[in-house]
Amino acid sequence: DVVMTQSPLSLPVTLGQPASISCTSSQSLVHSNGNTYLNWFQQRPGQSPRRLIFQVSNRDSGVPDRFSGSGSGTHFTLSISRVEAEDVAVYFCMQGTRWPPYTFGQGTKLEIK
Amino acid sequence: DVLLVESGGGLVQPGGSLRLSCAASGFTFSSSAMHWVRQAPGKGLEWVSRIGDTGTQRHYADPVKGRFTISRDNAKNTLYLQMNSLRVEDTAVYYCAGDRGGLGDPWGQGTLVIVSS
Chain B closest CA to A83's CA: distance in Å? Predict the structure, then answer.
């Protein structure tokens, strides 16, 4: 199984400052079709998860453009250009290249300093 | 609006069974692979099962293989998860999710399954 490792697991950030979360996979996530199936999810307190980014860098509909995804191979990053109060959440990466099983990272808890 | 609504969760004793349902609307359900993902209390996300758009391809996570069965009724726009031989460690919120652009869109609000004596 592909192991997804996130860092940091806790991320205190000052409002208006940038933030980034790293996700590393134990195997390359490049599919034989050339695509890379790495998604990012946001789970606000008491809510269901919501997908933010699919295939490394594509924002889902309605996702603010302060969120961006980057990376390739085994190293990926979710970046927030300027953190807002509504961004307090747990963020998960997930790989959908080498399945089954689909696998998630442990989650990174973003909080306001 | 695109919507997934899960139902069927509840309290069940170890060894018991439950059937979860997920009603889909606002998108072409019959053209979309679908998933079940679960989240134990205070824990992360765990993929449970996937079913292809026609229902012929089914895959399961090892912890549930042989105990859970995923199915779908495209005429009713509904996804199911039959859970047998339930264990305490199956306690979780169960989410259904679509596969537009990959797993995760759309995503339901979840239904809580508690396995306890």
Answer: 23
